[in-house]
Write a structure and sequence with these properties.
Blueprint (H helix, E strand, L loop, with lengths): L1 H16 L7 E14 L11 E16 L2 E11 L4 E13 L2 E8 L32 E10 L2 E8 L25 E2 L7 E10 L2 E11 L4 E5 L2 E6 L1 E13 L2 E14 L5 E15 L8 E11 L11 E10 L7 E9 L4 E13 L2 E12 L14 E9 L1
Parallel strand pairs: 8-12
Antiparallel strand pairs: 1-2, 1-21, 2-3, 3-4, 4-5, 5-6, 6-7, 7-9, 9-10, 10-13, 11-12, 13-14, 14-15, 15-16, 16-17, 17-18, 18-19, 19-20, 20-21
């Protein structure tokens, strides 16, 4: 992965150096520090007490020819356990009402913010956050075209990469330790295919899709050297939509997946869904600030047999946005697992310290953790996370 980042950086540098003679280039960087402070001693011997990282992000684009552009986004994390990640490295050609893209890319296809289903097209980076909301760019060939007032995307994928996990000696790592490599139901190079249609109808934003390929909701299976993530080959059909009516926003994600592994060791076709609602009070108490109340719920038909943490979970909370030049936002939420006796409190403060300089403080406090839950090994990982970033 480090070699891939280096090659991407050298290619970008070469393109930027040659981006004269009317060619447009844009390069952005951000660097910062991230620190974790844990309130309890580690749950397991050998785990670190605290953690500090240096973060760097390089992204931009280069116009190579009329309609042809190279886009890139690469991340580097330096610390006791350093790693790199490519979010995007694509060549894009725009023509008429369509476009072609080749390279590593991301497609979240999500509406909810907290209670989220596993991603469809991209592996997840649990090194960056324990819930896997951070995605890893995966190789794909994409064709997009206008269809009436909407857009059709045809995406072919190949040479899949698996999720990235934290090391056993790190805090906020999955359970149990993943020490056995990776197991694929079909060879990694097996081509996958996805079709998606998107459109907006007045207050409704809608996306529907069909897809065949590896599932990135990995099961854990025993292998001779330990335990390994297992990626089954699945067929999926789903939709995601958002409805906005004034101060009220409703969100829905619905997905059917075949051939899903269960924690009981079998296979099951089934549904998963995520629902969300937000209501915003504007100009609270005559100020410029807004108060948004939110509720989100995620459900999986497999229930306790699901290989994801959001199988019957509810998140309730509120967010205050000051709407000032400092862009201050304060969020508070309660996470409730309705299948397991697991509860957590979340707090987050975002603030712009100066031009291009931001601070992000978040707190995760486990109120209770069920021994049968997938997050059981995080029970002593309540923590404060501080991230300070500088954009250039």
């Amino acid at each position: 992965m480090m070699r891939r980042i280096a090659r991407t950086g050298l290619l970008a540098a070469a393109m930027l150096a040659g981006a004269g003679g009317g060619q447009a280039a844009e390069l952005n960087t951000s660097v910062g520090m991230q620190a974790y402070a844990f309130s309890d001693d580690p749950a397991f011997a050998g785990q670190s007490a605290h953690e500090m990282r240096v973060l760097a992000d390089l992204w931009g684009n280069v116009d190579l020819a009329p309609g042809l552009q190279f886009r890139f986004d690469a991340n580097l994390t330096l610390g006791e356990h350093s790693f790199a990640r490519i979010d995007e490295a694509t060549l894009r050609y725009d023509y008429g009402t369509g476009s072609l893209r080749l390279g590593a890319d991301q497609h979240p296809w999500a509406r909810t913010e907290f209670a989220r289903l596993s991603n469809v097209l991209n592996p997840r980076d649990f090194r960056a956050d324990y819930e896997g909301d951070t995605l890893i760019g995966t190789p794909m060939l994409q064709w997009s075209t206008l269809a009436g007032t909407g857009t059709i995307d045809v995406i072919a994928t190949g040479w899949a990469s698996g999720n990235a996990y934290r090391q056993p000696e790190q805090r906020l790592r999955p359970s149990p330790d993943l020490i056995g490599g990776t197991v694929w139901e079909r060879p990694r190079a097996t081509p996958g295919l996805a079709l998606r249609y998107e459109n907006s109808f007045d207050a409704v934003d809608l996306g529907v899709y069909l897809r065949r390929g590896p599932s990135y909701e990995a099961a854990l299976v025993p292998v001779p050297s330990g335990v390994a993530p297992y990626y089954p080959w699945v067929a999926q059909a789903g939709l995601d939509m958002q409805v906005t009516t004034g101060a009220l926003i409703g969100k829905l994600e619905l997905r059917h997946t075949t051939n899903q592994p269960t924690r009981a060791g079998g296979r099951q076709d089934g549904w998963a869904a995520a629902l969300g609602a937000e209501y915003t009070f504007f100009g609270v108490a005559g100020s410029d600030g807004d108060m948004m109340l939110f509720a989100e719920y995620a459900w999986d038909q497999r229930g306790r047999d699901a290989w994801q943490i959001w199988q019957d979970d509810l998140v309730l909370g509120a967010r205050w946005s000051a709407n000032t030049i400092a862009n201050t936002r304060l969020s508070a939420g309660l996470q409730l697992d309705l299948d397991y006796d697991t509860r957590a409190l979340r707090l987050r403060l975002e603030h712009r310290l100066a031009d291009g300089l931001t601070a992000d403080l978040s707190v995760l406090h486990w109120l209770e953790s069920d021994p049968a839950d997938l997050v059981r090994d995080l029970r002593k990982d309540s923590h404060l996370q501080i991230t300070i970033m500088r954009d250039f």
